[in-house]
Amino acid sequence: MVSRTAEHHVVLPVAEARWLSQTFVHWPYEPRIVQALLPSGLTVDTFGGAAWVGFTPFVMSGLRPGGLPPPRWSFPETNLRTYARRPDGLDGLWFLSLEVGTPVMLAGRAIGAPYQLGALTLHIEDGVVRYAGVRRGGFPSYCLTVRPGAPLAAGDLDIWLTSRWRAFTHTGRVLWQTAVDHEPWRLCRADPVDLRQTLTTAAGLPAPSGPPVLHYSPGVHDVRFAPPRPATRAHRPGR
Fold first, then answer.
1. How far apart are the C-alpha atoms of 158 and 146, rounded to whole Å?
2. Other CB atoms closer than 10 Å to residue 106's CB: what's the count?
3. Residue 209: its pLDDT value, please?
4. Are 28 and 50 in contact (CB under 8 A)?
5. Quick one: which of 66, 90, 136, 165 could link to 86 by a disulfide (CB 3.0–4.6 Å)?
């Protein structure tokens, strides 16, 4: 079951950070459409009969190797993600793309994390949060402006969309899982002021239809990443 609190405490993290000023934008999709983008060994997770794709810009703040003093890195990051399960029911994130403003994160490609360099910005002014980004080469891109609202008493869907405690990636035929541990998200309502993006079509999805589900969080301050470990062997999508 998806839970609001971390499944395991990461005692010896490989990295530590803060995730700040994060907006969650989610759209429902037909499960078969999203399943086509997953490797074998993972099944698309659903809520209310729909698969969900999330567009989540934020600031990665104070990133450092686990247990070590500075250097610390801070930079915008934007994820396009969906949700999946292993055959044993273990759930986690599957990243369709990971946009970052610094090459330090490209080391994650070693375990198949789809990091892409780009020019990303985040500004907070007059009660609104503005995110923008474009991948190196000029495509895809996004602009998002939201107005955070009142704190939200999280329901089942809110928790399902925001509280996941591992990410899956793959290289070749090896499926990896990376666990994460942090305090529960403090969620707020959010109203969209402007939303334009081509990340979904660049990932091989149809353009979203209908209004998105939005959440905003000021962030979590004690994020601990466990060392990646092989989960099982997997094939690439469509094989």
1. 17
2. 14
3. 87
4. yes
5. 90
